[in-house]
Write a structure and sequence with these properties.
Layout: H1 2-19, E1 30-38, H2 46-60, E2 65-68, E3 83-90, H3 92-109, E4 127-131, E5 151-157, H4 162-172
Antiparallel strand pairs: 1-3, 1-5, 2-3, 4-5
Helix pairs in contact: 1-4
């Protein structure tokens, strides 16, 4: 509940003052957080799929949705209907809890962390972060992670521009690199 209260009491007021919004509803806010794990064709083991599912379930507290290939691609050795990824969408309170944990616990645990890349915005106010290993999250112990896999996180906001989204994420506590 900490981050949502901070957003409602402090961040909205700061965003309104900085960007000159006339109404509270104009201030950008987090809409959803999407976590994705791609299942590589080299990782044919069913064990990898189980590990990735368990990892996402531990990190988010929700069951991941399996993403299947829509058509066959022979050069990538993918067949139609084959599972090619897993994803979880967080909204409302679970989203705020995850973002709070991400900023205050997970990012400080990342090895050689110098800040988030400020160029990872998509042009419409959404921000993406990629991890090479899932062990940066406190729920996943190195002993449990027999197979390491990547993880992508997308923070979807209601911001119209990258600048508005960056302001929002900075007030939330995202540590961006200085250019």
């Amino acid at each position: 509940m900490r981050l949502k209260e901070k957003y409602n009491k402090q961040i909205v007021a700061e965003l309104m003052k900085k960007n000159g919004y006339k109404n509270i509803m104009q201030a950008p806010r987090l809409e959803k957080v999407v976590l994705n794990v791609g299942i590589n064709s080299k990782m044919k083991d069913t064990n990898v799929l189980e590990v990735a599912q368990n990892t996402l379930r531990k990190i988010t507290g929700q069951k991941p949705v399996e993403k299947k290939a829509k058509k066959s691609i022979s050069s990538f050795k993918i067949r139609q209907g084959q599972i090619v990824g897993l994803s979880v969408v967080l909204r409302k309170q679970k989203m705020y809890d995850f973002v709070d944990k991400f900023v205050n616990i997970t990012l400080p645990r990342v090895r050689d962390f110098r800040g988030l890349n400020p160029k990872s915005f998509d042009g419409q106010g959404n921000y993406s972060v990629g991890f090479r290993e899932q062990i940066a999250f406190p729920e996943v112990t190195p002993q449990e992670a027999e197979r390491l896999h990547g993880l992508e996180i997308v923070f979807a906001t209601t911001a119209k521009t990258n600048k508005e989204a960056k302001d929002l994420l900075e007030y939330i506590g995202f540590p961006f690199m200085k250019n």
